[in-house]
Amino acid sequence: MRYFRYPLNEFSASDKKFELTIGGSFFSLDEMRLNLMHGGDPVTARMNFKDIYPWPVKLLSPGVMGWYAFVPRMECYHGILSMDHSIEGFIEADGIRTDLKGGRGYIEKDWGTSMPSSWIWMQTNHFDQEGISLSGSIAKIPWLGSYFTGYIFGFLYEKKLYRFTTYSGAKVTELDVTRDNIHIRLESKAYILDIDADRSEGVELPAPRLGEMTAKVKESLHSSINVTLLRKKGSCMEHIYSGTGRNSGLEFVGEIAELIKGLKK
């Protein structure tokens, strides 16, 4: 893995929209320009993003965290800028250029001082048809001297975002983690989202701890996630979608017992 450090004076960000510059690289909702140097080997990329699908923003629910976004001094804040979009461009590393035309993209952001002590995170938008995307996380949230387990899941299908979140009243009714699999079932008043994620080997990524990039997180980008969405109809269930997301991002850090205990609070 290649990790690039920059002095603070080489970072700048807009306070009005998602645009930031780090060294010679630029990131926004519309494009990414990557200019890195690893020894004598440059890593470059040029990407344009189209048909962005953001998580809805409302006055009292400004994004994926809902009203929790207004709570000061949380250790980690989370935002989803695009559940799914198209990509055109390329990335070049080790002298090999890869054409990204026809690819699918996803953009999220995190900020704060530390990642949670326990969490699950997953994302995929490589299903059997374009426009389908899953993003979800379950995490230990410190709260008033104790903690609870919070969760944010969104499933985009046929241009509709099905949301299962702590603040919307949805419930995690099943949660299990084994060496090879993560199983989660979420229920809202009207829908059920059933998830089975196959775990695969990941790589260690630097992560924040108390404001410093000293923690390590294992993340895989080669997992597969089976998703089923059902609609409740009285005592029956109506099947909406079943499919498998490929090239999935998947993380599990900490203790499953800690997450399950926090769900009962």
Automatic annotation (TrEMBL):
Q: Name one GO molecular function term.
A: tocopherol cyclase activity
Give coiled-coil spans as residue ranges: none
Q: Which Pfam families match?
A: Tocopherol_cycl (PF14249)
What PANTHER family does the annotation carry? PTHR35309, TOCOPHEROL CYCLASE
Protein name as catalogued: Tocopherol cyclase
**Organism per entry:** Methanosarcina thermophila
